[in-house]
From TrEMBL:
Residues 35-165 form the C2 domain. Keywords: Repeat. GO terms for biological process: cellular response to calcium ion. Residues 196-205 have a biased composition (Polar residues). Belongs to the copine family. Transmembrane segments: none annotated. It comes from the Eukaryota. Pfam families: C2, Copine. This is C2 domain-containing protein. It comes from Fistulifera solaris. Residues 236-450 form the VWFA domain.
Amino acid sequence: MRDGKFPHKVMGTALFEVGQILGARGNVASKSLQSGGVVFVHIERCSTDSVDVGRCLLQLRGLKLHNTQTLGRTSSPFYELYRKVERPTGATWISVYRSNTVRSDLNPLWTSASLDLEATCNGDLHRALKLIVWDHRRTGKHKVMGECETTMRGLLEAKVEPGEPNEFGLELMKHDKVTGQVQVVEATLSGMVPQDSGSQDGSLTSREKRRPSNTKKERSSRPEFIDYLSGGCQISLAVAIDFTASNGDPRKPGTPHYFHPPESKEWNDYEKAIFAVGSILAKYDSDQQFPVWGFGAKYNDVVRHCFQCGLEVEVDGVQGIMDAYRGVFRTPLTMSYPTKFTEVIQTAAAYARHEQEMAQEEGKQSYTILLILTAGNLENAEETKRQLIEASDDPLSVVIVGIGDADFGPMEFLDEHDPNTEEGRDITKFVRFSDYKSFNALTEAVLDEIPEQLVQYFTDRKIMPGLLEDYDADKIEVAPADDDERTFTFLG
C-alpha cells in the first residue's frame, strides 16, 4: 500500500476461473505470483437474488486513539474492515476494505468509502464485521491500535446525528482495555438495497435497535448447484470422440480430423473443440482424471462403438485428452459406419453409477458429464433418445458438440425434452461448435443446463448437499504463476 504522493505498485497478478475454484476443495484455489509469493482465492455464494444489492457510503473518524509510537512520535492510523466467514473448523476473517492513512493524528478523519454491500457483507446487514485500527509502519508490520466487532446494521445505527455528543462512538479494545473510539460520521445506503434496510430512502438514521423486517425475502429451501459443489460433490468428466467415416479422410486437408503440419501450429476441428469445451468442463473436475472413449472405428474388421483411447483408463488433464485423441491415429484403425452413441451412453451411465456409489461410501456425491464430440449423421436417433431417457436415472449429463457443417437435425432432436410427454429428466445439451466465435458465449452455452440437471437429480432422490468442506492451506496445490504476457485466441 502506498499513500499520498507515492503511487500504488503492482505486486503481481493471477488469473483464476470460477469453475476452477468451485471444483477445488473448500472452494479455495491458489496460484504463485511471478514476483514471488502465493495468492489464495475463496468463492462464496451470494446471499441475495440480485448481484447488485447496493452500496454504503461510509465515513469514519477516530477519537482519542491511544498512541502506539514512542520518542515523541504520533501514530498514523488507518482502519480495515473484515467480514466473518464460517468454516467447518471455525470462523475466519477476510479483509474487505482498507482506508487511507492519516499521518500523525490521534483523531483522524478518514476519507469517505463507497462500499459494495455484496463484497462487504454478502448483502446481509446482520453479518458480523470486524473493524481494526492500525498504526501504519513503513516496514509493513503495522501495529494494532484497537479493534471492535459490529455489523453493517450496527454501523448504520451508530451514525452520529446533529446535536448528539461528539464523544459517542464504537469502543476500540486491545488487551481488554479501551484504546479509543471510532465515530460513524456518514453511513447511507443507496441502490438496490436489501428489504431489511430500514427507511424508504435506503438510509438508517435511528439509533434504536430494530428487529429484522418480516417482509424480508426468504431464500428457497431448495439447494443450488454451488451448495453441492461446496459440500464435496465431485464432478467427473468423460469424453467420447467420433471416429466414423462421416468425418471424411483424415489425410485430406479440410476434413475435421486432418492434422496440420507441426510448423503451422494450427489445430484441426476436433483439437479446437477438445481444448475449448474440454477446458470449460474440466475446471469443475477436482482430480483432473478423465476417461476418453472413441466410437465408430473398425479394428480387425470389427466396428467398435465404444473403445478406450490411449493406454490409460483415465488421462491427466485436457492435454491428456488431446494426447489420447492424437494417439488413436497411430493405431491400425479404419474409420467406419454407422454413427451410434448408445454404447457410449451406456458406458458413461455405468461409469457415473460407479462413481456415485464410491462417493456415497464416503458420505459424498458424484456427478458425471459426458462430452460427445461428433461430426453428426446419427443413424439411430430414436434408439439413442430412449437410451438417454434410461440414463436419466443415473447421475449423468450429456453435452453433444457438433463438429463441422453436417446436418445436425438428429442432435437437435436429442436435445428436445418435453417433461409433460416424455419420461425421465432432461440430461442432454447440443451445441454446434462453429456457431460460437466467443469463448464466453461457448462457455454459457455448454454450461447452460448442467447446474439444474445436477440439482434435479439429487433433489428428486432427496439427497441433500454435504457440509462445506474445510481445507488445509498447507495441502492446497499451488498452481504455477501466469505468464507475464498472456494471449488467447478463441479457436472456434
